[in-house]
Amino acid sequence: MFSTARILPAVVSITLVSGLFSAATAAPPSVNYLNPAGGQVGQKVEVSVDKTLGTAPVSVWTSTPGLTVTIPEKPEKGKEKQFTVQVDAAARPGLYWLRFHNAEGASEIRPFLVGTLPEQAEAEPNEDMEHAQKCELPVTINGVLAKSGDVDIYQVKLKRGQTLIAAQTANEQLGSPMDGLLQILNHRGTVLEQMEDTLWYDPRIVFTAPEDGTYYVRTFAFPADPNSTIRFAGAASYIYRLTLTTGPFVDHSLPLAWHPSSTEPVALEGWNLPDDLKTLTPVVTESKEQALLSHPQLGNWLTIPLSTTPVALESKESQADKGQLLTLPATVTGKIAEPKEIDVYRFAAKKGDKLTFKVDTHMLGYPLDAYIKLFDANGKLLKEVDDPRRNYYDVQLDYGIPADGEYRLEVTDRFQNGGYRYVYLLSIQPTEADFSLQTTEEQYTLTAGDKPLEIEVTVNRQSPRFNDDIEISVAGLPAGVTCEPVVSRLKEKTEKSVKLKLEAKADVVFQGPLEIKGVSLKDKTKVHAPTAVIKGISPKRNTDRPKPDLELPYLWLTIKKK
């Protein structure tokens, strides 16, 4: 359903520190997290790393243009871990990825968020109401729950009837190993609202002030990977961004996906939205797989997937017994707005048609636990699907149509829940075999003139099994570096994985993106780049409904002298 265009990262090389270091002190950059982990469009921000920027000279790669990164040539004492990020005035709000690299190697990739609101740094002490940090709305606060038991409190003034959105970003986009919790308190310290999980482990509260006055936003956390402790958790890695605003804020769009040929804007669903922000035209991102919804007035931004077919909206007919008529292939956005609600769709199909029914919601960040039932024209239940496989909670069903006729599909929540955020994206498409690739690491180092570097690429031939031969190769290598393409063939040793062998002549030095691609030799429009699990910021989450580890297609190669 979604496009599969190759993501082409942008490379930004910045001239940084120069100096002489002995081989004994030479070290690659090592970065677990950035603090602060974001900045405002058009502003400059001072950022620190937790470990080291490595031996000079150092350069920085970013996934998308819009950031200018500078490290002082002669940093002040005590500021050796600091650098500046100038966010361009024309930069798009959103998630950027940074990687630091020098002659010795590269850091793991790390996130940096660009927002639209003024920013403020957390100022300790702010652990109780007496010392609560005063904030002027709207604002995005960059904070850290730095030690065990840490609590941060912020003070805001509200008028009766004003709606405050308090939204924390930590675990989901920044990889902080925290399960954050937000509370709204009145001036007496009474907890008026509390929220733990909204976007997976990141909380959001929408609070309407019952009267004029001073209110307090309190945040603390538990470990994302639960342990035996019952105290509030904290560590230097518990980085968060807390947005507080009484201005426009978006939760989802209708439809939930966008077809690039569409000339129609999408409707925005959220809070405090003025009439001129009830609709917005998406902008296709650099990845060519998503579209961005952002506006200077919005307190946040939203990315939605691109669809290969136009996206319809659920109509009132979906609530009728007969159901809403769809013409296949179809993609439709719906909402289980009330508990026990069932949305019904009907469509015509022919015997032998192989169809894929897919409902996306959990991976988009919404709470619906999708559950579908497929019936024939006589009302006979043909198939029902909840969770198709372990640790995957969005529905997918591949089904062969047994006879010509009209069919009926029901969509509901597994536990009969419903509400404002219970939105979903349903697609019914001809079943199409495809494949995906994955590497075990997200960065590799090859010593020039030494033994070859072997990179294992796992081939996932998706159901129904993808039978074509797949040529896997590396592009963009410098002169003096070779890597022969390898073909993955069904029923051979290369069916499930291949090994690429890179060799470099003794005088080659290189730092840059590792551009591996797999191409079907039968259908050359099927091209995929491998992803890799990003380590160090995606803690294992041993919960009933975990979100899969974060995977990105931004691989990296270092070629260093022997």
Précis, in short:
With 562 residues, the protein is mostly beta strands. 1% of the residues lie in helices and 44% in strands.
Description:
The two termini are 47 Å apart. The chain is mostly beta strands and 562 residues long. A hairpin with an 8-residue loop joins β24 and β25.
In terms of topology, how is this protein built?
Blueprint (H helix, E strand, L loop, with lengths): L33 E2 L2 E3 L3 E6 L9 E4 L4 E4 L11 E6 L6 E9 L2 E2 L3 E6 L3 E3 L11 E2 L4 E6 L7 E7 L4 E7 L1 H4 L3 E8 L5 E5 L8 E5 L4 E11 L15 E7 L3 E6 L11 E6 L7 E2 L2 E2 L5 E4 L8 E4 L5 E3 L10 E2 L4 E6 L7 E7 L4 E7 L9 E6 L5 E5 L10 E5 L4 E9 L9 E8 L4 E5 L3 E5 L5 E9 L8 E6 L5 E3 L2 E3 L8 E8 L5 E4 L1 E6 L6 E2 L3 E2 L17 E2 L3 E5 L2
Parallel strand pairs: 2-9, 10-12, 11-13, 26-28, 27-29, 37-48
Antiparallel strand pairs: 1-3, 3-6, 4-7, 5-6, 7-8, 7-9, 12-19, 13-18, 14-17, 14-19, 15-16, 15-18, 20-21, 21-22, 23-24, 24-25, 28-35, 29-34, 30-33, 30-35, 31-32, 31-34, 36-38, 38-42, 39-41, 39-44, 40-42, 43-48, 44-45, 46-47
